[in-house]
Specification:
The complex is a heterotrimer of chains A (about 290), B (about 450) and C (about 290). Chain A is mostly helical. Chain A folds into two domains: about 60 residues, no CATH class; about 220 residues, Orthogonal Bundle (MetI-like fold). Chain A is globular. The two termini of chain A are about 30 Å apart. Chain B is an alpha/beta fold. Chain B has 17 helices and 15 strands. In chain B, strands 7, 8, 9, 10, 12 and 14 form a six-stranded mixed beta sheet that branches. Chain B has a five-stranded mixed beta sheet with strand order 2-1-3-13-6, sandwiched between helices. Chain B has a two-stranded antiparallel ribbon with strand order 4-5. In chain B, helix 3 links the parallel strand 1 and strand 2. Chain C has one domain: MetI-like fold (Orthogonal Bundle), CATH 1.10.3720. Chain C has 14 helices and no strands. Chain C starts with a helix and ends with a helix. Classes of the chains: A mainly alpha (about 290), B alpha/beta (about 450), C mainly alpha (about 290). Chains in contact: A-B, A-C, B-C. Chains A and B meet through helix 4, helix 6, helix 9 and helix 12 of A and helix 1, helix 2, strand 2, helix 4 and helix 11 of B. Chain B: Keywords: Signal. Chain B: InterPro entries: Bact_solute-bd_prot1, SBP. Chain B: This is Raffinose/stachyose/melibiose transport system substrate-binding protein. Chain B: It comes from Paenibacillus endophyticus.
Chain lengths: ~290, ~450, ~290
């Protein structure tokens, strides 16, 4: 390849590229994309559609049904009896603390593992990395005994602590990968200016690693927002129950009212989807940044 | 041991806090959030201890998950009225469906943290480990005399002459049917086991689901099989004898015939589509929405006739029969047992309050009356004084089955042993009904399950 | 600088919080599990030590355990051989979608952000033999004979579970590959086009090999996710019919809590962790060899 001609042809090339993909090809591409996109969200559409139906309308033929009358009552029931608002706040509270503390601890750890010089850093890092493959369910039984001894049952800490601990390996992986790519010269000059290590981490490293921290937060958010087996085991009173429990509670209580069950599922699903759509740009950028550098 | 844990967490918390503050110049947002969990914890524990003197909080753990229908609604109503009458008592209800309930109660028991009042079943598999490990409070039988429990009802809750719990109801397995579906297809409700098979075939041929049941949870199947077996052996006790080690399932012609009956029913697709993955709610809906002609379930579902979620046409047409007869077993031989009830935790901080609540709960005009009048079950207490004559046709049919009973099965087979035994028994039944094993293999699996008991 | 970076006290404060939490919440429970795994504890009351009986039983006499492991491997194979190639293909498609690029990326990811409790309940309804979408669809197309009791059929059920898991994870895999594609310098495409290489060739010869670091990340994530699978199964079939859809996470939960074999359940989780460790080490070895080739 001659670099020269490449440069001169670049403009032409770009124009050609747009045209080159013939309209027919483009159309096929879009049809395929829409097809799969529909497959991905169809169940969601179906869920919302049925949440407006009476339980009796569920049976019979037809895949999507235009409701004879919109059963808003389903939503009223869901909101009142599913305790959705409270569970939503609980979920937000627990997840937020988890992802912030996890990011914070992981940043310190990854700094120590990539920058500081100490004998055991290799083995120590490998050790934590092994945690990535430990299934959270394997710790369910002993953790219950542990929390009981600590009187932490029915306390948000019983979720936050394991959530953070299990977030560490993957967060560490991404953050330390990112840190490796940051030139040390910036830190060195800061140290010359009399900055402590903690100062370096929080004044200099943290702003630079923001994209990677965002990735870590997002990945952890997804996993813990949806976690429910621990939540169901360690929390006993409704005060701290998280959102996934709402649906479990509701299917028990409204077992014969399908419409209301679907309404509560829609209520649980929609906020995450909306939040996600709002942050989709940051989310993709974060994952991109972390993945490419990591 | 305990001290070590506490020290460890203390160290941990100190570390976290210290790490936060030393980093605070650059990480303000982290500091506030990291500190809050411990604040939260303090807030929640402090008030309870302060108020300890006067008000009483009772934790009430129940498996009646549906708080807006049937028995759960009544349970909640009684709790609410008790709290209204006794302002100092607060009853915190935790309600889960059967299976999650049983899993969770084990979690509580393994850490000696059983809630004050729990739902208990007067069956070995459930209550024995709790009694053996000294987790249930002994109740004073005389305190509950005015509740008029039916003779024998408390037996399952007693061990070595001591009473540890009180039964809520008398349970028996029946077949509910949708009269309209039978009439529309000019079929008669089966009266013999042969007819049951034949009717199932014909319903299936007409594109109607014959029998719905909740086989995903699995407990209805072994009781069903007890019926099928009794219709061949003519005696419910024969199965109990096998469980005690007197004889085997394998090689017994009657048990084999019973298993073959079930297999024949399964082969002719007598069970509703998807019955193996149908949980309680799903199977109930299938029947209630007129999608299945019959429904094998306990007598506590008299509310089917009044549940507004179902079409009126269904509500007016639902009926119940006992399991069809054979030449050896009559319809008055019923698989019946005393079902769920309550027990009080030995660790309860307020045992008197818990017992006082149970006394209130079982006062005849509360549970027994209300559960009967709403058709949510058959109480384990005398309730003839509450018969109003306004009962639904379904309720009348159920009470007829109950009062005509000449022999009963007692504790369901799977509840007659350990939980491991129970799991094995239920899985064997799921496989038989699901056509994954032959009747002979089924009997062998049952014997293997019995072997676990030794 | 060097002195600062090897200050033991600083290192201690950086590492200790995260490391201690990790030890406490991840390692300690496993040690406890190993201990309880040598007992016949039923979860209540006293127990006896049974030595290594539980462990030998799992390894040599427990068909369900191996079935669960096999299911995990089946899921893994499906994920790697079906989900990932499609995800990669669609990641490439998405980059060519023009204005709608962001939207497609967002839509494909939606299932991953919805709570598993909701998606599972939803799919159970989709598979429902009477009112489920699948059977209605078949009926609508005049294929009534193909109607199935999807989750109740021991042969089909596991595939239904696999479809659901792949559906939910599709967006995640796609996003990873998409991120990888973003990291490839744009010049490369142009240069290749100048070379006269066809689009297909461009991707197979140039782009995909460049994506290999990303593939590695995606594979590691897939392996851990498949082995740890529990929630979907727990909520959809609870392992049934007859343990044909059992996964280890669910099996150990069921063993401990439904069968009250608490000691045995703990032993399962220890064996599980060990198997995960072995697999990861093997994977690492394999990938290290790979690295040399590029």
């Amino acid at each position: 390849m001659e670099a020269l001609s490449a440069k001169t042809h670049r403009e032409v090339n770009k124009a050609r590229k747009k045209d080159a993909a013939s309209p027919a090809l483009k159309a096929i591409l879009h049809i395929v994309l829409w097809g799969v996109a529909l497959l991905q969200i169809f169940p969601l559409i179906w869920l919302i559609n049925y949440s407006f139906l009476k339980s009796g309308d569920f049976f019979g033929s037809g895949i999507l049904k235009w409701p004879k009358s919109f059963e808003w009552n389903n939503y009223v029931n869901a909101f009142t009896y599913g305790s959705v608002p409270r569970f939503l706040l609980n979920s937000l509270f627990i997840t937020t603390i988890t992802i912030l503390v996890a990011a914070f601890l992981a940043l310190m750890l990854s700094y120590a593992f990539t920058r500081m010089q100490w004998k055991l850093r290799g083995p120590a890092m490998a050790f934590i990395m092994l945690g990535m493959i430990v299934p959270i369910h394997a710790t369910l039984l002993p953790n219950f005994i542990l929390f009981d001894k600590l009187s932490l049952i029915d306390n948000p800490l019983s979720l936050i602590l394991p959530y953070i601990a299990f977030s560490l390996p993957i967060s560490l992986l991404i953050l330390s990968g990112f840190l490796e790519t940051i030139p040390r010269s910036i830190e060195e000059s800061a140290v010359m200016d009399g900055c402590s290590v903690f100062g370096v981490i929080f004044r200099i490293i943290m702003p630079i690693t923001k994209p990677a921290i965002a990735t870590v937060c997002i990945m952890n958010f997804i996993s813990w927002w949806n976690e429910f087996i621990m939540a169901n085991t360690f929390l006993t009173s409704e005060t701290f129950k998280t959102l996934p429990f709402s649906i479990m509670k509701f299917t028990g209580q409204y077992s014969s009212n399908y419409g209301a069950q679907f309404a509560v599922m829609a209520i649980i699903a929609l906020p995450t989807v909306i939040i996600y759509l709002m942050f989709t740009e940051q989310m993709s950028r974060g994952i991109t940044a972390g993945a490419v550098k990591g | 041991m305990k001290k070590i844990w506490i020290t460890l967490t203390a160290i941990l918390l100190v570390f976290t806090a210290a790490a936060c503050s030393s980093g605070s110049n650059g990480a303000n947002e982290n500091k506030g959030n990291a500190a809050s969990p411990s604040n939260e914890a303090k807030e929640t524990t402090a008030p309870v201890e302060e108020k300890e003197a006067e008000p009483v909080t009772l934790k009430f753990f129940t498996a009646l998950a549906d708080r807006s229908n049937g028995a759960g609604k009544i349970e909640q109503a009684i709790i609410d009225s008790y709290m209204a009458e006794n302002k100092n008592v607060k009853i915190e209800v935790e309600a889960l469906q059967d299976e999650p309930y049983k899993a969770k109660i084990k979690v509580y028991a393994s850490t000696d943290a059983v809630p004050d009042i729990i739902q208990a079943w007067g069956q070995t598999s459930f209550i024995k480990p709790l009694i053996d490990n000294n987790m249930l409070l002994e109740l004073n039988e005389s305190e509950f005399e005015s509740s008029n429990f039916v003779p024998g009802a408390k037996d399952g809750f007693s061990q070595d002459g001591k009473l540890y719990g009180l039964p809520r109801g008398t349970d028996f397995l029946v077949i509910y049917y949708n009269k309209k579906l039978f009439d529309d297809n000019s079929l008669a409700v089966p009266t013999t086991t042969a007819e049951l098979l034949e009717v199932s075939k014909q319903l299936r041929a007409k594109g109607i689901n014959p029998i719905a049941t909740n086989a995903m949870e699995g407990w209805s199947l072994p009781i069903w099989f007890e019926y099928a077996a009794q219709r061949h052996t003519g005696d419910f006790n024969k199965m109990d004898a096998v469980l005690k080690g007197e004889g085997k399932f394998t090689g017994d012609a009657d048990f084999l015939a019973a298993a073959q009956d079930i297999a024949a029913l399964a082969d002719s697709k007598g069970l509703a589509d998807g019955f193996l993955t149908a949980d309680y709610g799903t199977s109930r809906n299938l029947f209630g929405q007129g999608q299945a002609a019959m429904y094998v379930m306990g007598n506590w579902e008299a509310g089917l006739a009044t549940d507004e979620n179902f079409p009126e046409e269904f509500r007016n047409n639902v009926g119940a029969i006992s399991y069809p007869a054979s030449d050896k077993g009559k319809t008055t031989d019923v698989a019946a047992w005393y079902g769920g009830g309550y027990a009080v935790s030995k660790n309860s901080k307020h045992p008197e309050a818990a017992v006082a609540f149970l006394k209130y709960f079982f006062a005849p005009e509360n549970w027994a009356k209300q559960v009967w009048e709403t058709g949510s079950g058959t109480p384990a207490q005398k309730f003839d004084q509450f018969l109003t004559g306004n009962e639904t046709a379904l309720q009348k049919q159920l009470v007829d089955i109950f009062s005509a009973m000449t022999s009963s099965s007692g504790t369901p087979v799977h509840d007659n042993g350990t939980d491991e035994f129970k799991t094995k028994v239920m899985e064997a039944h799921q496989k038989l009904f699901g056509k994954q094993i032959t009747p002979e293999q089924f009997l062998a699996e049952m014997d293997a399950a019995v072997a676990v008991l030794k | 600088m060097h002195k600062l970076m090897s200050n033991r006290i600083t290192i201690f404060w950086l590492v200790a919080p995260g490391f201690m939490l990790f030890l406490f919440m991840v390692c300690l429970p496993i040690v406890m599990s190993a201990y309880y795994g040598t007992t016949n504890w039923t979860g209540i009351g006293a127990y006896d030590f049974v030595g290594l009986d539980n462990y030998t039983n799992i390894l040599f006499h427990d068909g369900v355990f191996w079935r669960s492991l096999l299911n995990a491997l089946l899921l893994l194979a499906a994920t790697l051989l079906i989900q990932h190639p499609i995800a990669l293909l669609f990641a490439i498609f998405v980059t060519h979608a023009g204005k709608l690029e962001k939207w497609f990326r967002a839509i494909f990811f939606i299932p991953a952000v919805i709570s598993i409790v909701v998606t599972s309940k939803m799919w159970v309804s989709v598979f429902h033999p009477n009112f489920g979408m699948f059977n209605k669809l078949l009926e609508g197309m005049g294929l009534s004979a193909w109607k199935q009791d999807w989750l109740g059929d021991p042969k089909l059920a596991i595939w239904c579970i696999i479809v659901v898991v792949m559906w939910q994870g599709f967006g995640y895999a796609l996003l990873l590959y998409y991120a990888g594609l973003q990291g490839i310098p744009k010049d490369l495409y142009e240069a290749a086009e100048l070379d006269g290489a066809g689009r297909v060739k461009l991707y197979t010869r140039v782009v995909i090999p460049l994506l290999s670091p990303m593939v590695r990340v995606a594979v590691v994530i897939a392996v851990t996710a498949c082995l740890k699978q529990m929630e979907t199964v727990f909520l959809m079939t609870n392992g049934g019919p007859a343990n044909t859809t059992q996964f280890i996470g669910n099996y150990l939960y069921k063993t401990a809590f439904s069968s009250s074999l608490y000691g045995y359940g703990n032993a399962i989780s220890v064996v599980f962790v060990i198997i995960c460790l072995i697999l990861t080490l093997a994977m690492n070895k394999a990938f290290k060899k790979d690295v040399g080739e590029f």
